[in-house]
Design brief:
51% helix, GTPase activity, three-stranded antiparallel beta sheet, 14 helices, Small_GTPase, GTP binding, P-loop_NTPase, flat, six-stranded mixed beta sheet
Length: 435
């Protein structure tokens, strides 16, 4: 880690860091003494720069990256929990308001009926219903018990919700993370190899999963995870147990091609329909090896009139939009309608929001928040994932989730196909008996 004195014309290496008026200045001994002589502010001095200059493997930078990755993960977890809390509060509030408004409306209607006809009707739910009067005490008891039971039920749900909030601290994971003892940092004493081992162990102890491993280990990790953009022998793709055809759809600005380009590309562009073919392999929880042939609909808008065969034998559809481009999200409903009208009923859909690296660093660039995509997916019965295409592992997990649903759907399809002939035979047999 190279550093120089903060004075531009000075080429000396800083020996200490001087804090002055909220600023940290890396200075050599000469300019430190000169600054302290001329400045009347209160200063604090640290020899951290000496240690950092000897950090040959940049372990301190690795530590900061790991801590940053941890807090970013916890930030997403916090936002997700807060959304769940607000959804539950909204659900409870809506139910409570419905009860109170219904009681108000009911009492207004009842009072109007009494004042107009000067009697108490037996039936309160039918209009223009008049009958013999009933006792006032019985009426009050009836109304009180009716609405009391509704309020008791709602209050019980509220107490359960409050207990759930207090029982689980929202920053529990973060507090546990910081309660772990910090390992002594010896990055300015030991050798580079020793520091690498210590840093890796420290990262494992702290629970940070995205520690940058040496290249050889990372290559083995990618091979174990089955990520297709890592160059592997083609025979591995030939040993899949089942093959599913998937279409990737979305506007050209949705960054879908960037997402798919992280995976291995098996074929060149198909000139007859203008689609790019990608291959992704994954293993289901049951151990079944699945190969996905993913077809990108590049230029498909041009071939809409002649692409009826494009939807044939399609097992799944990936709808992609960019979180930084609201127009790509708005067009998802059009794509969804087109595929649902042309694909079989067993076809499975997943909605993927692509969050670029820039959006991760600058959240203000996000135009389509996560909960918007989640709500759309929930309403339309779609799978949902918001991904950063730099994270190959999560990208693969999204396609694995789609593969799991396709497999279940195909099994259900086989069961229905087996039952149909039996139903026809029964109907045919009944017709003969009736004849």
């Amino acid at each position: 880690m190279e550093a120089k004195c903060y004075i531009n014309l000075c080429q000396s290496k800083p020996s200490e860091s001087v804090s002055c008026n909220g600023f940290s200045l890396a200075v050599c001994n000469y300019h430190k003494n000169l600054h302290l002589k001329n400045c009347q502010s209160v200063h604090s001095i640290s020899s951290l720069y000496i240690k950092l200059s000897n950090d040959k493997s940049n372990q301190f930078a690795t530590f900061l990256k790991n801590e940053l990755a941890f807090i970013e993960t916890q930030l997403e977890t916090f936002l997700r929990r807060m959304r769940n809390v607000f959804q539950k509060i909204n659900k409870f509030s809506s139910k409570a308001l419905i009860i109170m408004n219904s009681q108000k409306k009911f009492f207004i209607k009842l009072l109007k009926n009494i004042e107009q006809y000067n009697i108490l009707p037996i039936c309160f739910f039918e209009e223009n219903m008049r009958n013999k009067p009933i006792e006032v005490d019985n009426l009050e008891t009836l109304l009180r018990n009716n609405f009391k039971s509704q309020y008791n039920h709602t209050d019980t749900k509220y107490q359960e919700f409050v207990f759930e909030l207090t029982d689980r601290p929202i920053f529990n994971e973060i507090l546990q993370h910081y309660e772990k003892p910090t390992k002594a940092r010896s990055f300015y004493n030991g050798s580079s190899q020793k520091n690498n081992v210590e840093s890796k162990n420290y990262s494992a102890e702290m629970g940070v999963s995205n520690y940058v491993q040496p290249y050889e280990e990372y290559g083995n990790y990618k091979a174990e995870m089955g990520v297709s953009n890592y160059v592997q022998p083609y025979e591995e793709y030939e040993n899949s147990d089942v093959v599913y055809n998937v279409i990737c759809a979305g506007d050209s600005e949705s960054e879908k091609y960037t997402l798919l380009n992280f995976f291995r590309r098996d074929n060149e562009t198909s000139a007859n329909i203008g689609a790019n073919i990608f291959t992704i392999t994954t293993t289901l929880d049951s151990g079944l090896k699945v190969k996905l042939n993913i077809r990108d609909n590049a230029g498909e808008e041009i071939y809409k009139e002649s692409n009826s065969s494009f939807f044939d034998n399609t097992h799944g559809v990936v709808l992609v939009y960019s979180t930084a481009n609201e127009a790509t999200y708005n067009s998802i409903s059009i794509w969804l309608s087109e595929f649902k009208n042309n694909c079989e009923k067993h076809c499975k859909f997943i909605l993927i929001g692509i969050k670029s690296e820039l959006c991760t660093k600058i959240p203000e660039l996000i135009k389509v928040p996560s909960f918007v995509g989640e709500n759309f997916a929930r309403i339309n019965n779609l799978l949902f994932a918001e991904l950063s295409y730099q994270d190959r592992h999560n990208c693969l997990m999204a396609f694995k989730m789609l593969s799991e649903e396709i497999y279940k759907s195909e099994q259900q399809k086989k069961i229905e196909a087996q039952n149909k002939p039996n139903e026809k035979k029964r109907k045919w047999y009944k017709k003969i008996i009736r004849f």
